[in-house]
Amino acid sequence: MDLDPEGIFRDDSDSESELYEEKEPTKELAVYLIDASPKMFAPITALENGNKETYFHVAIDCIAQSLKSQIIGRSYDEVALCFFNTKEKKNLQDVNGVYVFNVMERELIDRPSAKLIKEFSSIEDKFMSTIGSRYGVLPGSRENSLYNALWVAQALLRKGSVKTSSKRILIFTNDDDPFGSMTGALKADMIRTTTQRAKDAQDLGISFELLRLSRPDEEFNVSMFYADMIGLEGTDISQFLPSASEKLEDMKDQLRKRIFKKRKVRTLIFSIANGISIQVNTYALIRPTLPGAIMWLDSVTNLPLQTERSFICADTGALIQEPSKLFHPYKNQMVQFSKDQILEVKKVSNSHLRLLGFKPLDCLKDYHNLRPSTFIFPTDEEIIGSTCIFIALYRSMLRLKRFAFAFYGKSSNPRLVALVAQDEIISSSGQVEPPGMHMIYLPYSDDVRHVEELHGTGDAIAPRATDDQIKKASALMRRIDLKDFSVCQFANPALQRHYGILQALALDEDEMPDIKDETLPDEEGLARPGVVRVLEEFKIAVYGENHDQEEADSLSMRGSRSEASRKRKEMAETAERESSRYNWADLAESGQLKDLTVIELKYYLTAHNLPVTGKKEALISRILTHLGK
Amino acid sequence: MARNKESLVLLIDVGPSIHSVLQDVEDVCSMLVQKKLIFSKSDEVGIVLFGTEDTNNELEKEVGGYEHVAVLRDIRVVDDDAVVVLKNLPRGTFPVLDAIVVGMDMLIKKFGVSDKGKKRLYLITDAQFPTKEPYEGTKEDQVDTISQQMKILGIRLNCLIIREKLSTEHLGAFDENDKLLDQFSRKAMAKTVHVDCATSLLGAIKTRNVVPVTVFRGDLELSSMMKIKVWVYKKTSEEKFPTLKKYSDKAPASDKFATHEVKVDFEYKSSQDPDKVVPPEQRIKGYRYGPQVVPISSAEWEAVKFKPEKGVKLLGFTDASNILRHYYMRDVYIFIPEPGNTKAIIAVSALAKAMKEMNKYAVLRCVWRQGQGNVSVGVLTPNLSSTDNIPDSFYFNILPFAEDVREFQFPSFSSFPSAWQPDQQQQEAADDLVRMLDLAPSDRKEVLQPDYTPNPVLERFYQFLHLKSKAPEIDVPQLDRSLKRIAEPDPDFLSRHNSIVNNFQERFELKENPKKKKLSRRAWREKPSGSNDEKVGVDGEVPKVQSSSLKKSLSSLEVEKIGDLNPVQDFEAMMARRDSSKWITEAIKDMQHYIYHLLENSYEGNSCPKAIECLMALRKGCILEQEPKEFNRFMLDMCEKFRRSDLADFLELLYSKKITLISKSEAADSDLTEEEAKNLPIKVEDSSE
Fold it and tell me: Domains in chain A, start-ordered, CATH in brackets?
């Protein structure tokens, strides 16, 4: 299997395979428990424009979206979709009020498929008729649908070992008090058994995530019931407070962000000085998403093919085992290395991450970059006190506007790195930038190229813009200003198209999807009179009044009189003149062509626009062919 | 290859003031030649030394003057010889700086005026000594004449000036020389680089010449009516570790023309019938979509896939603060205005300066080539040129798409429990550390600037390659001192700020989490030292010991003998040396002698504890290095020797410390069983009675 076979996601020859070596360590199994009680079908009142979206709709929408990105990014993760507080029941345990949603050819908990996403996205239309909603916990009944739902979810998560996979239950609800309608001993009993069930699940290594949909009129009070159930204490609750925002978009945003669990890439020891070492986790917050690996199939059966690799000695043709020796040519010699030696050469540091010192932020230039950065967050898991030191350094670095300069001694490719402290940024929709440090991979001198020096202006001083020109450029900048530009606001059109096509094919749809390319410039905006005016002014300021005319002139000049074309024309003229001196037909007839020199033969060829390459015989035969002989 | 052939003359100062760094100069120059041997075999190299005792150059013979300038090698195609010569530069005694003319003369004589090939002079000096007054005119005039000449001939000049420390006595000469070299930079195609330590010396010379290729030439479209002609190049591009070929030893040794190469062959087999090979034309690509695999032929795919139009288009400008540094995704491009196009140069300059003033960046959408299957969106940042004759330009970094960002949520630091929050004193200690461990102090040059820091792995590999071509059995060389400065903090630097570091260390408490098993205890307790030799002293956790032991280990870098001070450490260091296998035998032998020496000079057993310690180290070392017989033989010898003497006590001590012979279970080479191994002291005891 090879990644990106056509190289469409590379824009030049450099291979980037090393970037992707950071594999996610485990796969995740998640059960989405979606509350389907009538409360969820209430419209969200905060909408001004009259659109009535229900909480249920928001939940379904967010889940469908995250499934879509999951199928692209981490398709090995498995999910189960499960409603509770339903009229109908569908589950292996055959308990009431729980409905496990699924499609054909799929296990209950499995990787998401195109069909699942499609059916799930449109479930709302027929939900009432097929599954139905009702209150799960009603006075006078001993039925406890939340308890049932936890039981079903836990049973679903029995698949897979805890060691190789992480397991989560995500609960989507807008009801902070599921047992509100109950009273007395029965209520206490229900709360106790439900909490116990949740604790049991947690003991089995299942973690809980509560995605609450807060209602504008009343705050979702976690401490009513859920704090107890999922085991939140003191400080955790404060982290759990819903943000003040009531905007629907923000709610969606918050849900979307929290659906994905964060995964660390590695745990590193960060040596500071004098044997002080702290522990940090690294996370890959930014990595290019590529179309998945391709597989070779047998075009007759459409079944996957197995690839077998064999090594063949180029000299003898013998089949050999994978050789343990490598070589590099040097001075007509083949210098051999063992794999261990290569490893040893690469090992220049025994430590993971080693502090060398600090530098002011302006020492980090824009061209000091090679690959996506890695995020660092402290952990006290094994070394207690790590977080404290990390925070202290982090705050100092932020205040003093300095970055830490360190050596990252990874065995495959050790690098100098800059650790840049990033302050936490919070918007109404939650955290935008987490607090921590970003590790930026720096180039070595071998990696930096000084191309600008190649195109200097010699001893002439390079022209610089005048103040007026700069002013015009500033005006332009004010006009064409992307105010709320956020770095990742564009979807990758190539990737969207790739998966759009695959989705259509996977679902046997005939029509190819039309993917909008969001990265195209806003032609309309650029054509507004105000923008056109500043552009025009800038153009005149830097290019002069008659730029277009001059350009056109120089283009036509270049067309007729550029050095190369003039030469070519001259040659053609000479050739024609020279060529006309011979009577080619006669020469050919009498077989005297071979008595001419190659230069003379070429006159004919050039005059008749024929290729002039090849040996003399080839030239002669070309002439004969052209003469029709 | 010959198209880009370069003729290079190295002009190397070997005068007395440069001797301290001459070793590094040798290294970097030989690396330069080595890389030429690999990457551009037809380049030519000449070497001129100045400051030498002898004089040997044609100019001196022809016109006189130019003393103490020696042509070490005429300009000719690179060969191994050049490396050897450069590795062993003579140390000169005379301070002169007249080599440029000699080098130029060599180039002219060799190529004449008309030759269009690339010609370069590389001047390496500390420019400490004054230049001689020319016979006529001023020095400035002379520089003018020379640079005029160089321009006509198309000779480039690179100057590398080494300033480790400024000595006041030469300041005048410094200034003058700097001025003269500056004049060169202005007048001719010259570039001057100043370095101040050995590490940046290694990085300052581009040892490999990569011919830059444009990624894109065409319009930067601000809109459909306003376009700027630009050329786009890579500004950074990772130089990868060379791909080594697999070696096949199947060819008979007698075959001189054997390529020893290995071909890798792929066969595709049906998953149902593993014996059936499916021919290439019967294969079809399958793309994964979740659990499904969707088969599509290349032709079909071609018809539907994303095909953007070539072009570089402006999306808009935005505040620099909207684009955080860590979003830069890849290696960096540079946009330069079309060379020679004054309008483009001015337009770029106007935009770049306005961007700088207003603190704005531009967002672009780029498709470099027609037929490219994707687009990139990135940020254009201004790069105002500090040199007169280089136009302003832009850097361009790729930004992530929505799919590339994972919005993981992390807790705020302020929400952490108070035990995790640094108190005021701790915060101050951290402030001091961040402020004082300053690698870019205002009064000195920035240390380890990426532009001047070589890749230690590549340096080491090419050194190893060269050594191995001479002696195939050689082990991987140690990391040079100057390269080590890249991977580890400078001990001098640390010891200068010892109090700050100590204060920091005292303020914070670190301990292992008792609930977690010592998962990575080794890792964080382990002394993080640069390579194998340094288990001694360096970075000990006790700061006071550290600085002294650091200096020791630096001055003598490699332990060659077991000393009286730290015999065990010396022994371990010797055992750990990897530059030659002889050190292990040496270390064992040395240790045995040392133990005998201790015991024989022992007064009433006063050195017995130390001897025991050494013996235990020796035992451990012998197990580690699979030399059990060495140890066992030594033990038996010792018992034999001492059991009749008054040192029999020592043997008893051995018994009580349970130091036994090495058994088979500990080291496979031993031929003693565990029982037999234990037997030794008892036997001794018996006989000693």
Answer: 25-259 (3.40.50.410), 266-289+346-447 (2.40.290.10), 467-545 (1.10.1600.10), 563-627 (1.10.720)
